[in-house]
Specification:
With about 300 residues, the chain is α/β, with parallel strands linked by helices. It is built from 9 helices and 5 strands. Strand 1 and strand 2 form a beta hairpin. It starts with a helix and ends with a helix. Belongs to the CcmH/CycL/Ccl2/NrfF family.
C-alpha cells in the first residue's frame, strides 16, 4: 500500500511548488495531499480514480509524466547509419570516376598509337620507295635479276620464310609501355601480318596468355574473317604469355580452336624474326621506345 502511495507521490505535482512532486516537497499542502492519498488508498480507490479526482480539482498539469528517453538511443544509431550511407555513396562515386578516367585514357592512347603508327608507316613507305627508285636508276636489268636471285638464295640459306599471301604468317609480340599513376603497368600486345604489314595493337594492364589471346580474338581474327582470309600461322618469341602446355594454356588453347599453327623464335630484346615483313613489328616497338621522351607531356596530362 505504501508502495502505491510512493509511486503516486512521484508523479503528482505540488500545487504551490515550482516543479516539485509531492515526494520532494516539504510544504504543508503537499503533506495534506499525501495523507489524503493514503486515506483514499485505504478506502479502496484505485490509482486511476485518485488521479482522475486530482485532475478534476487541479487540472491535467497536476500530473508529471517522465520524459521519454527512447529518442536518445535512436539518435546515435541514426547518425551512424546516415554517415555510412554517405561514405558509401562517396566511395562508389570515386571508384566510378577512376574507372571512367581509365577508360578515357585507354581510348585516347589507342587512337594516338594508331595515328602515330599510320604516320610512321607513310613516312617509311615513302623513304623506301625513294631509295628503291634511286637504286634502280643506277642498275641494269641484268644486275637487278642477279640481285634478286642472290637475295633469295641468301634468305633460304639462313632459314628465312618467304610469305606468299596475307594471312600466311602473322608476327605477335608484347611491349612494356610504362607505368601510370592510379593504373599501374601498361603493356601493349602487337600483331603484324608479315605480308601486307597490317598491324593491330591493344593496351593491357598485365602481360598474360589471356591478354595475348584477347588481341587475336578482339582485333585480328574478326578483321581476317571480314576480309575472308584465313590466318594460317603465328610467329612469337618463347615468352610465357605465348608458350605453355596446350591443355591448360589460354593462348595455346585459342590457337587450337582457331586451327592456327604456332612457330616460336628466340627472344633477343624484341621479336627479331627472320621473316620478310616481320621486322615491321620490331621497328614499330623500337620507334615507340625511341620516342618515349616525346610522349612525356602526354603522359603527364593523363596521369
Amino acid at each position: 500500500m505504501e508502495k502505491r502511495a510512493t509511486s503516486l507521490f512521484e508523479i503528482i505535482r505540488c500545487p504551490i511548488c515550482s516543479g516539485e512532486s509531492l515526494s520532494e516537497s516539504g510544504s504543508q499542502i503537499a503533506y495534506d495531499m499525501r495523507e489524503a492519498i493514503r486515506k483514499k488508498i485505504n478506502d479502496g480507490y484505485t490509482d486511476e480514480e485518485i488521479i482522475s479526482e486530482l485532475k478534476n480539482s487541479y487540472g491535467n498539469s497536476i500530473i508529471t509524466i517522465p520524459p521519454s528517453t527512447y529518442i536518445l538511443w535512436f539518435i546515435p544509431l541514426t547518425t551512424l547509419l546516415v554517415g555510412c550511407f554517405l561514405i558509401r555513396n562517396v566511395w562508389i562515386r570515386k571508384v566510378a570516376t577512376n574507372e571512367l578516367k581509365r577508360e578515357e585514357f585507354l581510348c585516347k592512347w589507342n587512337k594516338i598509337s594508331v595515328a602515330k603508327k599510320n604516320d610512321l608507316e607513310k613516312k617509311r613507305g615513302k623513304a623506301l620507295e625513294a631509295k628503291k627508285e634511286l637504286k634502280m636508276a643506277f642498275l641494269t636489268e641484268e644486275q637487278i635479276n642477279n640481285s634478286s636471285r642472290e637475295g633469295k638464295e641468301e634468305k633460304e640459306a639462313h632459314g628465312e620464310i618467304e610469305t606468299e599471301h596475307p594471312g600466311y604468317l602473322g608476327s605477335q609480340d608484347s611491349y612494356y609501355v610504362g607505368n601510370i599513376k592510379g593504373i599501374g603497368r601498361i603493356y601493349q600486345q602487337t600483331f603484324v601480318d608479315t605480308y601486307s604489314r597490317v598491324a593491330f595493337a591493344k593496351l593491357y594492364t598485365e602481360r598474360t596468355a589471356i591478354t595475348a589471346a584477347d588481341l587475336l580474338n578482339d582485333r585480328v581474327i574478326p578483321f581476317f574473317d571480314e576480309q575472308k582470309v584465313s590466318l594460317l600461322r603465328i610467329l612469337t618469341d618463347r615468352g610465357t604469355e605465348y608458350c605453355g602446355r596446350p591443355e591448360n594454356h589460354a593462348y595455346q588453347l585459342y590457337l587450337g580452336v582457331e586451327n592456327i599453327d604456332h612457330s616460336r623464335t628466340k627472344a633477343v630484346h624484341k621479336l627479331m624474326a627472320y621473316v620478310k615483313g616481320s621486322t615491321e613489328l620490331c621497328k614499330m616497338n623500337a620507334t615507340i621506345l625511341s620516342s618515349e621522351r616525346k610522349f612525356t607531356p602526354l603522359w603527364q596530362n593523363f596521369s
